[in-house]
């Protein structure tokens, strides 16, 4: 196979590899992104602004004047700070770091995570993540998402903490009333399962990449979603026009198939 530089993979790429390999090929190998809708753009910029303000707050920088510019962000941020005691600071904390980045070399790929807030105390390490979309996801769906699995796995592999000492909490901050949370406590069984699943998905990626680069063979469609995917038969002809619709369809397919 043609020699490639080390490939960096985050949770989004792992999710896509699992849900729709052809879309992974299109977005990450061919860099064929599509324009996003104004509504989607608004959600993304709201989320970026919220994350930035939380990081600035953690660094002790003044944010009051920025908060005054957006009442909704202000309400959500104050609601989160009131609901999460850890944000205010805990006694005995060894490390707390916002936008904390870690990388792990796994089978020749660089697995990358960015924790919104990492808090390390005597016998436990907590990952906190701010979710800014409007509907909280179910615990089951979040448990299967590569963000949960990868974030916990990488921390266990790159720290001295045992899986049982590590947890991850999602906080859904953009809700009309108070923020809601979903919490995951890690363990050794889940850790072994994640290692196995990562190995399996990256072994497949090795072979798809080799076929794609050496022989021009496209990444394969999944078998169990072809019947319900309206784009399967006209995949390549359809991409340019409606990949936003396709994304929605793919998400629905994933919900059905799990
Ligand atoms: S059938 Fe549709 S959702 Fe499934 S892999 Fe192919 S394009 Fe993706």
UniProtKB/TrEMBL annotation:
<dbReference type="InterPro" id="IPR038726">
    <property type="entry name" value="PDDEXK_AddAB-type"/>
</dbReference>
<keyword id="KW-0378">Hydrolase</keyword>
<dbReference type="GO" id="GO:0004386">
    <property type="term" value="F:helicase activity"/>
</dbReference>
<dbReference type="GO" id="GO:0006281">
    <property type="term" value="P:DNA repair"/>
</dbReference>
<dbReference type="Pfam" id="PF12705">
    <property type="entry name" value="PDDEXK_1"/>
</dbReference>
<keyword id="KW-0547">Nucleotide-binding</keyword>
<protein>
    <submittedName>
        <fullName>PD-(D/E)XK nuclease family protein</fullName>
    </submittedName>
</protein>
<keyword id="KW-0227">DNA damage</keyword>
<dbReference type="InterPro" id="IPR011604">
    <property type="entry name" value="PDDEXK-like_dom_sf"/>
</dbReference>
<feature type="domain" description="PD-(D/E)XK endonuclease-like">
    <location>
        <begin position="9"/>
        <end position="231"/>
    </location>
</feature>
<keyword id="KW-0067">ATP-binding</keyword>
<keyword id="KW-0347">Helicase</keyword>
<keyword id="KW-0234">DNA repair</keyword>
């Amino acid at each position: 196979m043609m020699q490639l530089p080390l490939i960096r993979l985050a949770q989004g790429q792992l999710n896509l590899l699992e849900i729709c390999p052809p879309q992974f090929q299109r977005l990450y190998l061919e860099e064929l992104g599509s324009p996003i809708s104004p509504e989607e753009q608004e959600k993304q910029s709201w989320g970026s602004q919220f994350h930035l303000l939380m990081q600035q707050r953690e660094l002790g920088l003044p944010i009051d004047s920025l908060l005054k510019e957006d009442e909704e962000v202000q309400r959500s941020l104050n609601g989160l700070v009131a609901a999460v005691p850890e944000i205010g600071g805990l006694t005995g904390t060894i490390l707390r770091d916002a936008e904390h980045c870690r990388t792990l070399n796994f089978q020749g790929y660089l697995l990358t995570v960015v924790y919104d807030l990492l808090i390390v105390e005597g016998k436990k390490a907590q990952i906190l993540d701010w979710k800014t979309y409007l509907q909280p996801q179910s615990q089951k769906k979040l448990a299967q998402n590569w963000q949960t699995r990868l974030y916990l796995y990488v921390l266990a592999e790159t720290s001295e903490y045992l899986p049982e000492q590590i947890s991850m909490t999602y906080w859904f901050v953009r809700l009309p009333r108070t923020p809601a949370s979903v919490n995951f406590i890690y363990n050794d069984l889940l850790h072994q399962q994640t290692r196995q699943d990562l190995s399996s998905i990256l072994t497949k990626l090795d072979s798809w990449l080799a076929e794609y680069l050496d022989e021009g063979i496209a990444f394969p469609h999944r078998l169990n979603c072809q019947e319900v995917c309206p784009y399967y038969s006209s995949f390549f002809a359809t991409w340019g026009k409606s990949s936003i619709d396709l994304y929605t369809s793919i998400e629905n397919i994933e919900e059905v198939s799990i």
